Amino acid sequence: MEQYLLGIDIGTSACKIAVFNREGKVIAAANGDYPVYYPHPGWAEQNPEEWWSAVCGAIKEIFDKGKVLPEQIKGVGIDGQSWSAIPVDREGNVLTNTPIWMDTRAADICEEMNEKIGADEIFQLSGNSLQPSYSTAKVIWYQRNLPRVYERIYKILQSNSYIALKLTGEFTQELSQGYGLHCFDMHTGTWDKEMCRRLGIPPEFLPDIHPCHEVIGTVTAKASGESGLAEGTPVVAGGLDAACGTLGAGVLHPGETQEQGGQAGGMSICTDTYKADPRLILSYHVIPGHWLLQGGTVGGGGVMRWLEKQFGDYEREEGKRQGKNSLTLFNEMAEKIAPGSDGVVFLPYMSGERSPIWDPNAKGVFYGLDFSKTKAHFIRSAMEGVAYSLKHNLDVAQEAGAKVSVLRSMGGSANSLLWTQIKADITGKPIIVPSSDTATTLGAVILAGVGVGMYKDFDEAVALTVENKRSHEPNLQNAEVYKANYQVYLEIYCNLKETMKRTGGR
C-alpha cells in the first residue's frame, strides 16, 4: 500500500488540505472556507475553532472520495498564517477570537512600548521592529481590554500550533513562528525571559520551541473521530505559511528567493547569516540553520478578489456563458492596457501596510483617473501596484545586504502569466514558476516527510518534489515605463502620509 503525506494550510480565507505522494504529486485535495471578522476599524479577527471545523470537513471530504485511506497517511504537516495570538486555557479551549496579521488595533501599545523599552533595544533582540501586526502587542491588548480572558490564559498559540494542539493534545511553538513575539531572541531561537518581563508577557504563556520538522505527537482518538485521520498518525510541529511556501517553491540555499502572491504579497530571501532591517521582517526558515528576510505586504491576490467582488458582476455572468473564470476575463481586459496603465498608479494599502512602511493608517489609492480610463485600467494598475510594493521590499532588502538574482513565484497570482510578467518587468528580476500551485502545502508535507523519515534530508525532498513550470524574463522596454510610475508610487504615499494618519480611523 502506497504511503502518503498530508498537508494542512491555514490561510486567511480558507484552509487547504492536500495529500501528496513521495514525488510531490497531489493525490487528493479539498478546501474549507471560514470568515474574517471586521468588528471595528483596524480590527481583523478569526475564530480558530472555525479553522478546525473547516480542516476536519476538508479531510473527511478527501477520505470520502475514496482515493486515499486514513492508514496510508504516514505523517501530517501544518503551515499557518502569521502573527495570530490565540489564547487557550489548560483544556485547549479558545478564549476569544484571535486578531490576525491584518489587525492593527494595538498600534497605541506599540508606540508606548517602543518609547518605554526602546525601539532599538527591541529590534536588536528580536530582529523585528515592534508593529501592531505582530503577536506581541495583541497579547498586551488582551491584558488591558479583556481581563477576564487574560486571567484564564494558559498558552498563547500560533495558527499552526493550534491545529497541532487539536490533533495531538500537545501545546507547542515551532521555530519559524517565534518571530511574532518580540521576546523571541532571533540570534539563538529561544525565549528571552528578561524581555518577556519588560514587555509584560508572562513566560509561562509561551510553549516550548520545537524544530519545524520534529514529530511533536500523534493524532489522538478524539481528533481521529473528528477529522477522520487514523489514531496514532505522526504530526510534526509545522511552520509559518510563508516559510513553508518558500520551501515548497524550492528555496533552500542562501540568496534564493520566493515571491508570494496569495491573499497578501511579499518576498522571502533565504540566508544562512543573521540579517535584519527594521523595515523588513526576519524569521527563521523551516530549514535548520537558515533565516528568511521577508517583505510582507497587505496587497496581493486579495486586491484582485476585492476588485472582482465589487466590480465583477458582468464578468461573473459572462464567464458562465463562456465557460471562463471571472478573474480570467479580468486578466484578458488588463492585457489590452499598455504597461504603466496610461499613468494610473495604485497604492495597494487596503488594510494599512506592513513592510517596508509599517503604517496602519495607509490607505488604498488610485491616482491618475480621468474620463478616458476604464475598468481595465483599474485592473492593470492594481496588478502593477502590487508589483511596486514587491519592488519596494526588494530594494530595501538590497540596502540591508541581501541581494537577489532570481525569484521563485508561488500563490494564486502566479497562475496569471500577465501578472507574473508585470512583476518581472517592474522588479527587473527573472521569475521562475514551479509546476505545483500548492507550494505552501507542499512545504508543510516536506516537513512531515523529513520528520517521519520518508526523505533523508531537505535537499532530497526538494529534488524529488519541486519542478519548474515556466519562467519570465524582464522586458527592458516595459521597465522604463514602470520606473517612472514607481517613482510616482513612492511620491503619492510620501505626500499623503500625514493625511492618511489624520484620517486613518484609529
From TrEMBL:
Domain Carbohydrate kinase FGGY N-terminal: 4-248
EC number: 2.7.1.17
InterPro entries documented for this protein: ATPase_NBD, Carb_kinase_FGGY, Carb_kinase_FGGY_CS, FGGY_C, FGGY_Carb_Kinase, FGGY_N, Xylulokinase
UniProt catalytic activity: D-xylulose + ATP = D-xylulose 5-phosphate + ADP + H(+)
Keywords for the protein's UniProt record, in alphabetical order: ATP-binding, Carbohydrate metabolism, Kinase, Nucleotide-binding, Transferase, Xylose metabolism
PANTHER family reported for this sequence: SUGAR KINASE, XYLULOSE KINASE
Protein's UniProt name: Xylulose kinase
Provenance organism: Muricomes intestini
Origin organism lineage: Bacteria, Bacillati, Bacillota, Clostridia, Lachnospirales
Gene expressing this chain: xylB
